[in-house]
Amino acid sequence: MSASTETTYASASAAMPIGTPRHHIIIFAGLLVLLLIAPYVLYPVFIMKILCFALFASALNLLLGFGGLLSFGHAAFFGSASYVTAHAAKVWGLTPEVSILLGTVAAAFLGLVIGALAIRRQGIYFAMVTLAFAQMIFFFALQAPFTGGEDGIQAVPRGDLFGFIPLANDMTLYFVVLAIVFGGLLAIYRIIHSPFGQVLKAIRDNEPRSISLGYKVNRYKLAVFVMSATLAGMAGATKALVFQLASLTDVYWSMSGEVVLMTLLGGMGTIFGPFVGAAVIVTMQNYFASFGAWVTVLQGTIFVVSVLLFREGIIGVLSRWLKKPL
Amino acid sequence: MFELLGIPPQALFGQLLLGLINGSFYALLSLGLAVIFGLLNIINFSHGAQYMMGAFVAWMALTWLGIPYWGALVIVPLVVGATGVVIERLMISKLYHLDHLYGLLLTFGLALIIQGLFRNQFGVSGLPYSIPPQLSGGTNLGFMFLPNYRGWVVLASLVVCFGTWFAIERTRLGAYLRAATENPTLVGAFGINVPRMITLTYGFGVALAAFAGVLAAPIYSVNPNMGADLIIVVFAVVVIGGMGSILGAILTGFGLGIVEGLTKVFYPEASSVAIFVIMAIVLLVKPAGLFGRTA
């Protein structure tokens, strides 16, 4: 990559220049410090849930916010990875890191298959196709012999990391989960700010022009779809170990809707939005759980209000006020 | 008696009929989606919830007001359609200048609200709705026993589908509609109130879903989740049929219902995924759908 092309990229998208602005480094560092302190103040499993969903939402945001592709079936990757990880850890007795890796690879493979078919349609059709494929995975999970049907895979052992660090303790597991999720977030940040990410944004903003510039648009779309599916799978795999459970909820379409809501509420196309959106929604679900189906009504209302009045999301609005990309 | 491929004919025709009935609902619902999509360019994610509302409002009309099935068949689509008109005016009309995905997200949120409210009110166990006395019993067709109500569902669905197709493809009003999908500004310049037409189209599409809900009430138990899973199958039907075409929605709806029924006879485990497998194949071969004009 020559220097001249790089400047063209930078000037073409002033909103999100290539390279790393200092305030991003500060936010990442602050977030890390906050997350290192958090388990001493709050219940670690609760924060781990937020972390897993933050990674899931950020993975979706990579596809939706930066690739302009609305997948309404991301639960397929999240859920199937959690099933594979749970099965690997429980039945095959593999170590946690290998189980998570297997789950993530399974999601990547699934992402390649579904993505290759789904990118053949555009816009809302794309959303419907991903949703329909996710439902196919749901029925598979419901009927396949190893998934435990309605019960799911329960009592998944957390095992020993690398065979000698026991993860049964919530605190130990917390720092492993933090490392995985933070690594995932940094990877997403890196992807967005690479030349690949710049092409992606060009495709999002004007696909015909990107085609006429000679970019193999479908290859870029498939690549980002697979990356997003892989990271969503990593989130699902981690979640399976945290809760020691893989269930139909992970793969059901309302899960796909939830993660879209997190992204929308936090701010599509922002870096930190999905994290904030996930934190808000997970907190809400935790504290309002006793209200039963009213949580669904509340989530629906947040959806409607976000779409009608609050499309930029929390971080989107903040970013506009501060006049800085967040 | 004779056997076809080792399957007793009763089982085969029974599943074919079941497939045809499911197909009736697929066709009615994908038709409603196609009508709404045609003019509003919005995928109505709350279509399943509105179908569920149709069944519930029919139940409420019978239980609380004593309105029987035949009255519900007329009144319920009007009532639920009216809620559609309100939704279009208050919410969807604010989104036309935005990316289509916002319409999908908005209607998804609405579906969550509607389903949540009904779940709070009625629980998830399901309520019974009895078959109207005029249609109870069945007819012996010689090769199989046809419950009268099921025959009526297929007939009613066919009539409504044909009526809608005729209205859109063969009448002056339909011509206005089709013209407005092509160029709303120009049609508006001819003195036709396009925004009102859009509102009424949404109301009509919602009414179609509610009509399907009333038809479904005596067959399936009336419960808040009855639309949630159906809608995704209908999305697959829509992708297979191709969204551009009214006829495509109808034919694919019935066709896939039958295919699903046949799968249940020959390989029951695959019946719930059969439609999605077909969708994958169609996407590979003909991404615009079987009847679609453009991708």
TrEMBL record, chain A:
Presence of keyword Cytoplasm: no
Subcellular locations according to the entry: Cell membrane
UniProt entry keywords in alphabetical sequence: Cell membrane, Membrane, Transmembrane, Transmembrane helix
Major localization listed first in the record, in broad terms: membrane
Record's bilayer topology term: Multi-pass membrane protein
Cited Pfam families: BPD_transp_2
Superkingdom to which the source organism belongs: Bacteria
InterPro entries: ABC_transp_permease, LivM-like
Signal peptide annotation: none
Keyword Glycoprotein belongs to the record: no
Transmembrane segments: 25-43, 50-78, 98-117, 124-142, 171-192, 222-247, 259-284, 291-310
Cross-referenced PANTHER family: ABC TRANSPORTER ATP-BINDING PROTEIN, HIGH-AFFINITY BRANCHED-CHAIN AMINO ACID TRANSPORT SYSTEM PERMEASE
Protein name: Branched-chain amino acid ABC transporter permease
Source taxonomy: Bacteria, Pseudomonadati, Pseudomonadota, Alphaproteobacteria, Hyphomicrobiales
UniProtKB/TrEMBL annotation, chain B:
Transmembrane segments: 12-39, 51-67, 101-118, 149-168, 200-220, 232-259, 266-285
Membrane topology type: Multi-pass membrane protein
Pfam families reported in the protein's UniProt record: BPD_transp_2 (PF02653)
Keywords: Amino-acid transport, Cell membrane, Membrane, Transmembrane, Transmembrane helix, Transport
Transport recorded as keyword: yes
Record localization: Cell membrane
Family to which the UniProt record says this protein belongs: Belongs to the binding-protein-dependent transport system permease family. LivHM subfamily.
PANTHER family documented for this protein: ABC TRANSPORTER ATP-BINDING PROTEIN, BRANCHED-CHAIN AMINO ACID TRANSPORT SYSTEM PERMEASE PROTEIN LIVH
Protein name: Branched-chain amino acid ABC transporter permease
